[in-house]
Amino acid sequence: MNELHLTFKVIPNAPKTEVVGRMDNGVIKIKISAPPEKGKANQELLKFLERTFNVTKGEVSITSGETSRLKNVRVTGTHRDISSLIKK
């Protein structure tokens, strides 16, 4: 099983939650449908990643950037890699 450490640039209040792509610096740009208030966008990001990587609640966590649009995330307990998140 892998442990992934990913960095996201989060764009809240989008029509739907989806990965937009990867920036030149390796940061993954993602649109989140939830607003950036009371942790709603963070919760939506975690749920999206849990579904994408097919892991349970608690295996995805924000390690830094909880109040920032730039977030570092750790995903544990997955056999998938970054390609399951980024479409070519």
TrEMBL record:
Annotated signal sequence range: none
Xref: InterPro entries: DUF167, YggU-like_sf
Gene3D superfamilies: YggU-like
GO cellular component: cytoplasm
Coiled coil stretches, renumbered: none
NCBIfam families (UniProt xref): DUF167 family protein
Family: Belongs to the UPF0235 family.
Protein name: UPF0235 protein XD73_0937
Native organism: Anaerolinea thermophila
